[in-house]
C-alpha cells in the first residue's frame, strides 16, 4: 500500500512575487535550449508531449484556437478526454492535470506551468487560446501559468492570445474540511482504499490545514498580502489582467467549492468589467456537471468559445 504523508500534499499556494519564477525558468530553459525540442510521440489521433503527462490533440489547421484543459485533483486523463472530444473538431486541445501527489507548495505548480509554457505555449501557432479549468487544482495551474507569462519576453503577445476562461466548479476559497475532503478522495479513491483509511487521512489533513490557516490569519494582522501569497483564490482575485470573457459552470450543492464563494469571485471580476456568462445547476456535485447535463454543458462551452 502506498504511504502518503501529510506534508506531501498541501492544498495551498505559497506564491511570492512573480519575479521568483525567473531563476527557475532560467535554469530549466537554459538547459532546454541546449537540447532538442521536447519529443512528440504520435498515437492514432494525438501527440503525447514530453513524458506523457500532457496530451496534445493537434488540429490540422495550425492556426486553430488552442484549448487548455487543466484537470481537478486526481483527474484521470480518460476523464479529460471526454471534454476534449467536443472541442477537437474545430480546435487543438491540450489535456493536463497537475499531479496532486507532487504538490507540496506553489513551487510545484510553477514547475507545471513551466512545462506547459516550454512544451506548448512557447512554440504554439494558435491565434487564440482558451483555458478550461476544473476545481482549484486546475485554477492553481492556470494561476501559476498566468504569473509565469509575466516573466517571458513575449508576455504581451502571449497574454493577448488568451481570449477566454471557463471555470468548472471554481474558483472558491475552500475550508480546511473541504480541502481535506477533495484531497483525501483524490489520493485514497474508494476503488483502492477503505472508507476508514480515507476518513482518517481526511481528519489529519483537516487538522493540518486548520493550523496553517490559523497561522495565516495571525500573519495577516501585519502582512496584508499574506493570503494572496498562500492561496490561489486570493492570488486570482488580485490579478487585474485576466481575460475579459469568462464562463462559470457551478452548482448550488457543490460541497467542495461553494456557489457562494464562486459568486464572490464573479462579483469581483464584474467590478473589473469582465464579461460574465454562467451555467448554474441545482442537482450536480463537484465537477459532475457534464456527466448529468452533457448537451447543455457542451453547448455552453462551444458557444462561449465561438463568441469570445
From TrEMBL:
PANTHER family: TRANSMEMBRANE PROTEIN 53 (PTHR12265). This is Transmembrane protein 53. It comes from Setaria digitata. It comes from the Eukaryota.
Amino acid at each position: 500500500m502506498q504511504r502518503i504523508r501529510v506534508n506531501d500534499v498541501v492544498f495551498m499556494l505559497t506564491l511570492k512575487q512573480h519575479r521568483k519564477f525567473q531563476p527557475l525558468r532560467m535554469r530549466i530553459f537554459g538547459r532546454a535550449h541546449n537540447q532538442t525540442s521536447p519529443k512528440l510521440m504520435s498515437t492514432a489521433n494525438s501527440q503525447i508531449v514530453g513524458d506523457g503527462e500532457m496530451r496534445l490533440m493537434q488540429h490540422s489547421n495550425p492556426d486553430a484556437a488552442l484549448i487548455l484543459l487543466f484537470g481537478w485533483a486526481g483527474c484521470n486523463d480518460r476523464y479529460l478526454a471526454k471534454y476534449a472530444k467536443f472541442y477537437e473538431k474545430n480546435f487543438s486541445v491540450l489535456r493536463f492535470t497537475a499531479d496532486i501527489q507532487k504538490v507540496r507548495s506553489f513551487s510545484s505548480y510553477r514547475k507545471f506551468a513551466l512545462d506547459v509554457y516550454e512544451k506548448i505555449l512557447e512554440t504554439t501557432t494558435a491565434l487564440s487560446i482558451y483555458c478550461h479549468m476544473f476545481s482549484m487544482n486546475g485554477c492553481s495551474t492556470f494561476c501559476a501559468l498566468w504569473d509565469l507569462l509575466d516573466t517571458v519576453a513575449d508576455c504581451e503577445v502571449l497574454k493577448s492570445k488568451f481570449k477566454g476562461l471557463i471555470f468548472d466548479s471554481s474558483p472558491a476559497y475552500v475550508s480546511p474540511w473541504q480541502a481535506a475532503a477533495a484531497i483525501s478522495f483524490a489520493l485514497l479513491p474508494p476503488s483502492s482504499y477503505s472508507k476508514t483509511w480515507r476518513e482518517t487521512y481526511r481528519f489529519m489533513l483537516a487538522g493540518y490545514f486548520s493550523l496553517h490557516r490559523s497561522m495565516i490569519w495571525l500573519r495577516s494582522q501585519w502582512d496584508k498580502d499574506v493570503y494572496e501569497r498562500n492561496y490561489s483564490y486570493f492570488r486570482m482575485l488580485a490579478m487585474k489582467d485576466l481575460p475579459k470573457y469568462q464562463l462559470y459552470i457551478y452548482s448550488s450543492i457543490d460541497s467542495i467549492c461553494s456557489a457562494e464563494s464562486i459568486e464572490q469571485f464573479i462579483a469581483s471580476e464584474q467590478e473589473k468589467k469582465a464579461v460574465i456568462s454562467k451555467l448554474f445547476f441545482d442537482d450536480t456535485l463537484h465537477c459532475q456537471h457534464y456527466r448529468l447535463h452533457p448537451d447543455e454543458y457542451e453547448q455552453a462551452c462551444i458557444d462561449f468559445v465561438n463568441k469570445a
